[in-house]
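User: For my dataset I need records formatted as: sequence, then structure tokens, nothing else. Please produce one.
Assistant:
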Amino acid sequence: MDPWTFSSTVDYEDIMNKFGIKRFKDVVGIKDPNLLMRRGVIFGHRDFNLIQERINKNKGFICITGMMPSGKMHVGHKMVVDQLKWYFKHGGNIFVSIADMEAYATRGKSFEEGRKIAIDEYLSNYLALGLDLTHKNVHVYLQSESKLLNDLSFKLSKKVNFSQMKAIYGFENTINVAHLYVPLIQVADILLPQTEDFLSPMPTIVPVGIDQDPHIRLTRDVALRFKDDFGFMAPGSTYHRFITGLTNTKMSSSKPKTAIFLNDSPEDAEKKVKTAKTGGRESLKEQKELGGCPDRCVVYELLLYHLIGDDRELEKVYTECRNGKLLCGECKQMTSIKIKDFLEDLAIKRDESVEIAENILN
């Protein structure tokens, strides 16, 4: 399992058992749980209990994420922003690394391209989605422009060898050295907030998809190796399910037919929803008699992850689909209106955020 070529077929249970990830549903006593937590989209964790304890005691903590500026931002990426907003609301110090070095090493993007994509696609959308990137407790930086980050990654590389990298990532001898070095930059991204230049050691959480777990495992190991040098605490993590693509495969920026992009026109997104695969039966008669299968429906996932905030409203959609009362055409029509409204509102907010996004990296 590596973060760059992960398959769309995911056996979450098998991965959890293999790598020692705990079930998130076993966590109790969360204050004001995030929608993704309530609905089981966030399914696993490492050491979330340490963050929960800090939240319950109104103490600060670190939340770190990264964005690789190599393509367009789609609705699947919105899940990370929703989680960052929740952690910020509950006292988290937010760190956002723009992984332009990773984009250069693994996607062939120049640093100039990476910077432009970061501003136009990511920072403007993060702001439009409601995360205040200008707040004193939110830190945004480019990997390539952070001397502190690059100095730290070099120091940390001292205690990591190729055998370990190969065991975690499956690297072959033909891998370019820049790609080989990228995970160490990621490790430094996660541990940098715990250095004396920022907040010093404290509980840290990294919200990710399961494909990023190799970075988490490597970082936890490196943190322990450098505990005497820096006092690092091993970072915790949460894992969210991938949203299914419109063609019933993994949603991907590199495959436009699978994704609804945040910069799509509302009309284009509306058309995409209306042509998406559903969990419906082969005939209208069967649909009415046997009901639909919302658990296997791309359209229902859009409602579950993003478009319906009220749990009771979502439950009504689920139940009426299962009993054949709500048909696929009707559900698509409802969902297409919701996605259109969402993107129209987002476009207005994004236009208002462009200048702010441009100034963040200056």
